[in-house]
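Collaborator request, handled under Task 6.
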Amino acid sequence: MRVLEGQALLKDLESRLANIARHTETIAAGAQGFVEHYRAQLVARIAELAPQLVADSGHRLETEALLYAERADVSEELTRLRSHLEQFGSLKDLKDEAGKRMDFILQEMNREVTTTLSKTSGLNERGAAIGQAAIEIKMEIEKLREQVQNIE
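Structure tokens returned to the collaborator:
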């Protein structure tokens, strides 16, 4: 009975990891060109609200907008999230305290997704799509956390 339960649990874990990987790639696709798109939006909005400021600032406004927009870059978070997914997947063959290790990795994954959400939420339509994928990942992580509590 325990073997059957373990096999069902493993199948569920793999399915949820695949969902997270799929949503991670959705975020990566949305993040392509995100910084440049956001920079252009910032400049356009400032030009709309304060055209004289744009005329007086020259390239300085472009530089400031780019620096601000680069804060929304999530490439580092995506790299770490992918790494955590690989680490989590490799733990399924571990026999010693696998549940605790999995729980720790899930905490790290949650941290990366939370950072991604905070960097991109409310920025533009791309940010909304990234945010939706990140929320889906957070939901999967929570379900995984419940499941790893059953792993000895």
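The cover message to the collaborator said: "Residues 47 and 55 are 9 Å apart (CA to CA). Residues 2-31+74-148 form a domain with the Four Helix Bundle (Hemerythrin (Met), subunit A) fold (CATH 1.20.120.230). Please let us know whether this matches your experimental observations."
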